[in-house]
Amino acid sequence: MPITPLSPPRATSLLAAQATTNRQRRKEARPQELLDAALDLFVEKGFAATRSEEVAVRAGVSKGTLYLYYPSKEELLKEVIRHNMVNQIAEGVTIVRDFEGSTSELLTLVFGLWWERIGETRASGIMKLMMSEVRNFPEIAQFYVDEVVHPAERMVSQLVQRGIDRGEFRAVDVPEVVHALMAPMLFLVMHKHSIGACGVGHSIEPKVFIATLIDLVLRGLEAPRKAAAPSARASVKAPGVKSPGATGRVTDKKTKGKARS
């Protein structure tokens, strides 16, 4: 069956519609492209050293377009943090609330997901930025504490308290246990962005590291204590002999009867 060619007006109309659709898709993708470009540059060069113009060029837009979405570099970084970390913590809170298994299983799940969603991704660079540069930007520091640190601590606190309430964990100082759990994860990220990035020194396998951390937290380093074997002397009694009384004397019924007669 022969194909009827489109008339010039109709062909022009379809091309215009396709171009409009492509522009719409490009516009919708632009914020994500700006956030990705910003995070990559902040981690590569540092937040203070990165200029807004560089972010715009990396994302393939004009500087004016960048400011249309994010009026300042500080606001751009805040949105980078929201998109890459705040949303992940919110998901973790839901998992802790709805999980039905043991708390040990939940701890393993949450820390494993944290590494997959943040540690293994470009989002881990945000933690590097906070450690290296945030002292010069108090407003960003406060934002990070309010939006990331405190919510993450509350989530892990709820997890630990869950274990205590269910009788799975012993009573502990929950805030200090939370710090003890989270500090090694911070170390893991810092290693990734420092010595680990250079390929020198002792290599660390993150998933093995996390599994070891959880095993250490749940079971400690002490070997299980063996139950003491019962004493043979204490367990065997002569027939008709009572246990020593308060005076330590042993009394025999037959001997006591002869003495009276």
CATH superfamily annotation of the largest domain: Tetracycline Repressor, domain 2
Mean pLDDT: 83
CATH names the topology of the largest domain as Tetracycline Repressor, domain 2
Question: How far is the N terminus from the C terminus?
Answer: 134 Å
Helix and strand composition category: mainly alpha
Strand content: under 5%
In short:
The protein has 261 residues and is mainly alpha-helical. Helices cover 70% and strands 0% of the residues.
Outline the structure in words.
This protein has 261 residues and is an all-alpha fold. The chain has two domains: 17-71, Arc Repressor Mutant, subunit A; 74-221, Tetracycline Repressor, domain 2 (Orthogonal Bundle), CATH 1.10.357.10. 70% of the residues lie in helices and 0% in strands. It has twelve helices and no strands. The chain has helices at 8-45, 52-59, 63-69, 73-98, 103-119, 124-133, 138-165, 174-192, 195-198, 206-219, 232-235, 253-260. It is elongated. The model is unreliable at 19-25, 243-251 and 253-259 (pLDDT under 50).
Q: Can you lay out the helices and strands and say which pair or pack?
A:
Blueprint: H1 8-45, H2 52-59, H3 63-69, H4 73-98, H5 103-119, H6 124-133, H7 138-165, H8 174-192, H9 195-198, H10 206-219, H11 232-235, H12 253-260
Helix pairs in contact: 1-2, 1-4, 1-6, 4-5, 4-7, 5-7, 5-10, 7-8, 8-10
